Amino acid sequence: MKIIPEENFKCTHNGKQVSLYTLRNKNGFVAQITNYGAIIVSIFTPDRNGQFTDIVLGYDKITDYIQKNSPYMGAICGRCANRIAGGKFILDDIEYSLPVNNGPNHLHGGITGFNKVVWDVIDFSRSALKLKYLSRDGEEGYPGNLNVIVTYSLTDENELKIDFLATTDKTTIVNLAGHSYFNLSGEGSGLIYDHELLINGLFYTPTDETNIPTGEILSVKGTPFDFTSPAKIGERINSDNQQLKYGAGYDHNWVLNHPCGKLGLAAVVYDPASGRVLEVYTTQPGLQLYTANYLKNENGKEGKKYNYREAFCLETQHFPDSINKPHFPTVILNQYNEYKHSCVYKFSTK
Length: 350
Hints:
This protein is mostly beta strands. The protein has helices at 62-67, 242-247; strands spanning 11-13, 16-18, 20-24, 30-34, 39-46, 52-54, 75-77, 83-84, 88-91, 94-97, 106-107, 120-124, 128-135, 146-154, 159-168, 172-173, 177-179, 196-199, 203-205, 218-219, 231-232, 251-255, 264-270, 276-282, 286-290, 298-299, 305-306, 313-317, 332-333, 338-349.
């Protein structure tokens, strides 16, 4: 197991110190996280033979994260993850305009989202890292000063837990999500078509051609979006389906079966080649599956090339464009209330 040297991430960016933090548990699992973008840089887990491999895509050096237009690899996305139609929304009778950075829409917090700022380190131990960021009123067009705390914890049950907490001094919108790119065979090891996926959701939210939900909530039954029983990711990804054409593959939100606010199973992924299993649990109502449809010749760790559909993302979150869809679960956070969200990645083998 060759972990990334922490020296590769020591720098000052916009006057703040950047570092790499290595978490370990008693079973040999390792997670490496940087306070730049609160990014998960590496996760080392064993295969069925006990061989540890890094299973998340990323870079060896902090300069790559800062200088490249990285596709949100491993980052925390915010203030509002996913898309907002036209970069506009109305809150308390005031229309707000956000930067448009994804076709005609606003994506993952804008030009300088939470993925491109240096977070303050509140606490660090062998198994946990607590980070804080103050998103000031008007940043990227959002109202209110938003205080955000993200805590990463690596448990001896082989879980990487992410706990989110946010408060505001003015009514605003919040939808935070982790954006790790997984390949359970190991980062840079090729297509993820043979990974078997189960999603604990009977419905999904179809989109228009710009990947904004239409507002419909449709059954997955009889469609390529039915992962209620395990199916290979590549089995139907190239089907003659208009939704898959819009997303160039899977880039859609599923409505999860468990109640919002309660920790429940969102998805299970199994890689037959390595025997690795990833279970995802969340308190959020939605899960975005993205199959790296736009990765192309990206220079990754140790000179590896990352390409089209060589990873998958499982982003636990509220539904895309919820602020403009009143019947979707709300992303509005009022003054004196708390935003809380937990996501758990649990690793095993079979």
